[in-house]
């Protein structure tokens, strides 16, 4: 936010606004006489909104309404604004130069939207309760409205349901207002019970033999066996009637009272020889990660990964009741697991690396003289592996100089001797990640002068992984530590495989490039690049394009200092002096680029800013300077290796 603290009335000020991307625009501002708010007064400061009302008739005249499109009720409100300058000659309050900001302290109950200079709409957001709506001026004056949101239903419904023995079910009542909106229960008291229905079990018998009921919460808990003869026989299915009564009072006055009925079907559960498969979809293919056999009751898994979602699939054995898989009760515990039912499967997302437990509870009917429901449980303990979300390489860009022939002090266009480079994984994020690492290497020699494919690889390159007898992919071939191709092998994945040694053979020419990829088992990847270039002596002939002018002091130009206007752009130009060469190198661009890989015959340049300078200008990877505000900025120019550097000072003037 721009704040102007001083100025004369009627004075015009030009403000230059610059975006992060470098776009600038000149905006003229004319200063006016300030007229701050003296007092704010809420008109009708306390009122009630009923989420179930249509607000027809008299209430509509009081600015209440039902917004069917937004599915909410609302009221238009007005704030009285008194200013320091008071009223004009016609008796009207002079407009304030303040801005007014409207806010709600409980947006889940009611919120507000400004609609005019002194008006706003306060509306419901789905919950009952009391919210305070405040309007505040930029000069600090404020006023507030207190809105109480209630929910008066006009109808109640209850849907039919089905469950299994031993598996509790909640049957929710649905309350609706006269406007058709589904309402929260709020202060409506709900009472559930069993009821006699035609074609169903009598309520008294149902309570005694088939199901218990929590009258206040609507939870029906079926018995373990559908039997009314002392467990000698049992029914496969029974139907019982359920009812709910809703009552809402305003003080002692009943404003709503209505009941609804439904039927609950209870099926007998009998799960035999249960098998549980644990798996996931990977690349659209179903992959089994493990199994609990019919004889296993407990098992620990150590190869499931944080961030992945797994399914626990129940497979009841022969002799199980119809729909047996649906009768199983699932539960999970642990801070790092979130679970939901997905049909008959139990779907769990591992969100943290702490241990988690998944349990499946079910009942098997055992027949002797009587039928006995036997409780059984399968327990799955998960010790998750934290997968890396990202990889960081130590020195991801490395530059190898072809060297200088000391006999004649001339730069050499090819390596004078073998060069050894090590690429390391510096960090896995998060820190407790335990991914295994795989390496892949792609090379291209200097004969690749454009983006043609296939590339010609560097011959004789040797790659050694950090693990004994490890395999690495080099130019799409899997090789051992001696560089021998192993056609039947795959590149090694190993937790200790966090570094790679590369020997670049003598004779490799400047303009060659090596791309190294470190792949974490969880999917994170980081790339490193090794550039073979001619030797750099120094950065020379630094300059700035014509839109910038050399900074003058005492009639002379200051070295490496330029002035640049706020609404202009400039480009840095620089040349390299190559060791032993007689001329400077100006073209420092890539020889070729394929995707994110480029090759360079000479070191490319980088441009960086310190924290203070980054507030004054922006500079991109090509050296383009974009001013942000007046001030002094220092731009550091470095070669890709970081061994040679130069500085440019840019003074941004308005």
Q: What is the fold's blueprint, element by element?
A:
Layout: E1 12-18, E2 24-30, E3 37-42, E4 46-50, H1 58-61, E5 64-67, E6 72-83, E7 100-104, E8 110-114, E9 119-124, E10 129-137, E11 142-150, E12 155-158, E13 161-164, E14 169-170, E15 173-176, E16 182-183, E17 189-195, H2 203-209, E18 211-214, E19 219-222, E20 237-250, E21 253-267, E22 275-282, E23 285-292, E24 298-301, E25 309-315, E26 329-333, E27 337-342, E28 345-350, E29 356-367, E30 371-382, E31 390-394, E32 397-401, E33 404-405, E34 410-411, E35 419-429, E36 437-444, E37 462-465, E38 472-474, E39 477-479, E40 499-504, E41 513-520, E42 525-533, E43 536-544, E44 548-553, E45 556-565, E46 570-578, E47 584-585, E48 592-594, E49 597-599, E50 605-609, E51 617-619, E52 624-627, E53 631-639, E54 645-653
Parallel strand pairs: 4-11, 13-21, 24-30, 32-42, 36-38, 45-54
Antiparallel strand pairs: 1-2, 3-6, 5-6, 6-9, 7-10, 8-9, 10-11, 12-15, 14-19, 15-16, 17-20, 18-19, 20-21, 22-23, 22-25, 25-28, 26-29, 27-28, 29-30, 31-35, 33-34, 35-40, 36-41, 37-40, 38-39, 41-42, 43-46, 44-45, 46-47, 46-52, 48-49, 50-53, 51-52, 53-54
